[in-house]
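Give me the 3D structure for Mitochondrial ribosome and complex I assembly factor AltMIEF1.
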Amino acid sequence: MFQPSRQQILLLYKHLIRYGNHLKLTDKNYFLGRVRHEFRDNRALTNPVEIEFSFKRGETLLKKGRIL
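Predicted structure for Mitochondrial ribosome and complex I assembly factor AltMIEF1 (68 residues):
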C-alpha cells in the first residue's frame, strides 16, 4: 500500500492548480473550485486506502487529462 506524504499531496495540489490555469476548452473557475473543494473535503481523511485512492485519482487527472 502506498501512503503519500504531505509534501507529495501539496505538490499534487500545486500541479492541479497549474493545470487548471492552462485549460482552454473548459470553465477554469469550475475546475479550480472543484480541485479546492475536493482537497478541502479530503483533508480530514485518516483511512490509508481512501487517501491513496484520492491521491491516485488526482494523479490520473494530471496524466490523462480526465478522470475515468
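The chain is about 70% helix and 0% strand. Let me know if you want a second pass.
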